[in-house]
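Bumping with the actual sequence this time:
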Amino acid sequence: MDKYSEFYNVLDEKAKLFLEFSKGKNIRVISHLDSDGICAASIMTKALMRENIPHSISIVTQLKENIIQELSNEKYDIYIFTDLGSGQIELIDKYLKDKTIFILDHNEPNDIRIDNENIHHINPHLCGIDGSKEISGSGVVYLFAERISDENKDLSHIPIIGAIGDNQEKEGFEFLNNQILSTAIANKKINVEKGLKFFGLETKPLYKVLSNCTEPVIPGISGDDQKTIDFLESIDISPFIGNKARKFFNLTSDEKEKLISALIIKRNNEENPEDILGNLYLIEGESDGMQTKDAREFSTLLNACGRLNRSSLGIGACLNNHDMKKKAIESLKDYKREIMNSINLYYKNKKDNNEILTGDNYIILKPKNEILETMIGTLTSMVSRNKNIAPNTFIMSLAELEDGNMKVSIRIANCDNEDIDVNGIVKDITDFLGGESGGHKMAAGAIIDPEIEDDFIAKAINIFETKYPKEIIINEIDN
């Protein structure tokens, strides 16, 4: 039996058991606050609603021990953990031993194997499948929901949004995500088109999309609104109709083709001029120009809801509740403000050795309580995508939580080394010093006691420098 058949068999078996166990029961769902976690919660709640199963949902930043302990005091029969739980299975067993547990996760599980027949653990890693690349947490939940009822195939677009949010789209998807995408296309939930892979193409003025584009860079255009406007006019594409800026979807087919050709010519001296093109995943039934049309923008919308503690709006948007979708879109303004605060803080502090530590292959940010605790992962990810930072540089951020603990977030900048495993690094440190950790190869985090902050940083630096040394680095901080 190959690994995919094994995984599908596990899903078949666990879905059948769930349908047996859930009759007449009350269910508690706990999911992660990022876009993938919100997608996972959305799929699960819709599947439960269709089975008339009463349930409640909580969205959490991280599944900490105190949260699991609090859950043990509640009077639910079944607990479902989505997009988290694999790294906390020992704690789940400790506090919820007598409850029926379903863990649907794609994050790398720890090495602990629990002998508890009440815990039903569904994770692709357990079948030899890399959950960091092949399927998202919401993808695991979708495949589970699909086995509960064929009716849930109309949710097949949601895990694609989640997978994109977890950076699993790399010029297309790998096998499991691609299988889900095929279902979404067959059920007319998603339309895939080749086009410009610029963020904001659906919602922002065209000239702004082009001038804001830095990945990839467009010579003579990126960073300059007026030059972008001049460029569009030079190829006979009017950037405005009257005083109103045009968006990409306002262009005719001929204008779109003309624009793409001109941009490729503009990038003729680049290594791959055509890398401005890629797959666009467009949600069927959503209006042009809306933040819910393009799956990439939809993912950002959900991330905004989660980071601003408005996850219910994200779930409502996924399930096409028009009022909640409208409020979710309005949340983007607040999210953009928090992002700008985070970025401004980074650039303000990058020469301050007390706030940012740098070495040959690491950048460590210590904003402490200067940004929202839910934004620390977002800040770390944004810094890691800076093309001026050398490949395989570790980006680590630490922030204070409301409960007095510290949150740690680690990413890899422009990674091209498949041997790097940040989840393994974080786990090694927390196993040695204490704390709780979780994540996958490319993105991981931890909750630690502030008293071990300095020791944690020192241990991390030692691992960065000794296990993954670099001979050459272009350090963005010094530019």
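The tokens above came from a reply further down the thread. The longest strand covers residues 393-400.
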